[in-house]
Specification:
This protein is an alpha+beta fold and about 180 residues long. It folds into two domains: about 5-135, endopeptidase fold (from Nostoc punctiforme) (Alpha-Beta Complex), CATH 3.90.1720.30; about 135-179. The protein has helices at about 20-30, 80-90, 105-120, 125-130, 130-135, 140-155, 165-179, and strands spanning about 5-15, 35-40, 45-50, 55, 70-75. It has a five-stranded antiparallel sheet, covered by helices on one side. Helix 6 (about 140-155) runs antiparallel to helix 7. The longest helix is centred in the C-terminal third of the chain and has 16 residues, at about 140-155. About 20% of the residues are buried.
């Protein structure tokens, strides 16, 4: 770590690969740029939260590829071992895999928590406000039960297949939300 501290970066990925920007306005009656997944990059590692809990990898090596955007969140003077201890505490409690919620307790909330801990800054509002922005639209309100279903069942029923009644029920809910 340099004398001025270790830089803290926010990697921003679009989970839709550009589809949200292309279809957002027609579905939501408002433009959206993407469905954001974020990660914190500090001490040479990328840290993120998902349905499997907290994960760490080399920067830019997730299945999502390279980030669409990178924001500098500031610098931290905290040593890496203090950060690692903090992460272990979060993993045991606040950000354990069973606490993941697609809409309310996700990667973006994790990134915000880490950013505030490391450098006292929040991540950009356009990321944090996206779930409420989507759910405030008529289509978002129709889609909310489907999203809640996914959120409540991520990691719980990994065997959701085309032959299961849950899969058929979920497809029916999606079709209803589209109409």
């Amino acid at each position: 770590m340099g004398e001025a501290g270790e830089e803290v970066l926010l990697y921003v990925y679009d989970l839709t690969g550009g589809m949200a920007k292309a279809l957002g306005e027609s579905l939501l009656q408002k433009p959206i740029e993407g469905i954001w997944h974020t990660a914190i990059v500090v001490f040479g590692k990328e840290h993120f939260f998902g349905s499997n809990g907290i994960s760490v990898c080399s920067p830019g090596t997730t299945a999502l590829g390279s980030p669409l955007r990178t924001h500098s969140l500031g610098k931290t003077c905290l040593p890496e071992d203090v950060f690692q201890e903090y992460l272990r505490g979060l993993e045991q409690d606040t950000f354990s895999a069973d606490k993941y919620n697609l809409l309310r307790h996700n990667c973006n909330n994790f990134s915000n928590e880490i950013s505030q801990f490391l450098c006292g800054n929040s991540i950009p509002e356009y990321i944090l406000n996206l779930p409420d922005e989507i759910l405030s639209t008529p289509f978002g309100k129709q889609l909310q039960p489907v999203l809640e279903y996914f959120s409540n069942n991520i990691g719980v029923h990994p065997g959701l297949t085309r032959s299961s009644s849950d899969f058929e029920s979920l497809n029916n809910d999606i079709d209803s939300a589209r109409n």
